Amino acid sequence: MWRRRPAQRSQSRASDAVSGIGDILRRRRATLGLTLDDVHERIRVPVRLLEAIEADRFEAFGVAQYAKGFVRSYAQFLGLNPDPFVARIQVGPGRDGKTGLVVSGEVPMRSSAPPSPLRRALVWTAVIASITLSTIGYIGYRQMRQFHQSEMVDQQRIAAEANGPSGAPAPSVASPAPATDGSPPAGSSPAGPDAVETQLPPLDVAAESVIQVEMSSQDVCWVSVSTDGNRVFEGFLRAGERRRWDAAKTLSVVIGNATAVRISHNGRDLGWLGAEGEVVRRTFARGEPAGERNP
């Protein structure tokens, strides 16, 4: 069995001092599915220097501290411990047979490591929260605008009903002109000592003195309530919340989702005033009986 001479063995150790570093880094990069361009975009190391590292051509860096700094940055980016790689970089004869410069220390370089999973989760959470808040704000704006428009329509309808179908006051009935010959006017009974004044019975009208409306919210819903022409409430009712309003003449309600709120008028349960998702408007006036109950 032959033995390698000491001179050859010493020269082999010097030439193998940095061998294998580039191969390990290259195989690690391939395992992660990255290209040299991908690495350059993340840690801003030129592609030609990355190729030199993977080919173990450290003489391309000129001085040892730059080679160690770039190898440390590259190893950290690939998720490897950089210390063993940096420690293996020794100053010795290069491929051209010349000895490199002996420089102590290394250039500190910051590795552009990929963001942590926690940071990515926080960013996505912020984006989703922003989109959700924007959507809720837009929906709220649409509902408020629709409710204001419905209130104006209700007020115009109430004013039109108060002025009659044609918008003009009801005509007055002219009283008959007195006769010139001393006879009583037509349609009247002659007055005399035996004349008896007839009192008409009062009109039997079951009119309510107070309008009372109670809402029982089954789900979160936007409502608007006006009593005697004045808006007294506009906002959201929470699920399970119960509110009551009283009025002397009229009480108008606008409900954003008919099946989210149950209505009670003067103690009578009316149930829901419409279908699911329907915007309903209802005006209760003094003197009208309690409305029909919805299923």
Characterise the protein shown here.
By secondary structure, the protein is α+β, with helices and mostly antiparallel strands. It has a domain at 7-87: lambda repressor-like DNA-binding domains (434 Repressor (Amino-terminal Domain), Orthogonal Bundle), CATH 1.10.260.40. Helix content is 35%, strand content 17%. The protein has helices at residues 6-15, 21-31, 36-43, 47-54, 64-77, 82-87, 117-162; strands at 211-217, 221-227, 230-237, 242-247, 250-255, 261-265, 268-271, 280-285. The strands form two sheets. A four-stranded antiparallel sheet has the order 4-1-6-7, with no helix packed on it. β6 and β7 (268-271) form a beta hairpin. Residues 1-19, 99-113, 166-176 and 187-207 have low confidence and may be disordered.
Query: What is the count of helical runs?
Result: 7
Mean pLDDT over the residues = 74
Unreliable segments (pLDDT under 50, ≥5 consecutive)?
A: 1-19, 99-113, 166-176, 187-207
Helix/strand class:
alpha+beta
CATH superfamily of the domain at 7-87: lambda repressor-like DNA-binding domains
Range of strand content: 15-25%
In whole angstroms, the N-to-C terminal distance is 105 Å
The CATH level-2 architecture of the domain at 7-87 is identified as: Orthogonal Bundle
Strands, count: 8
Please report the first level of CATH classification, the CATH class of the domain at 7-87: Mainly Alpha
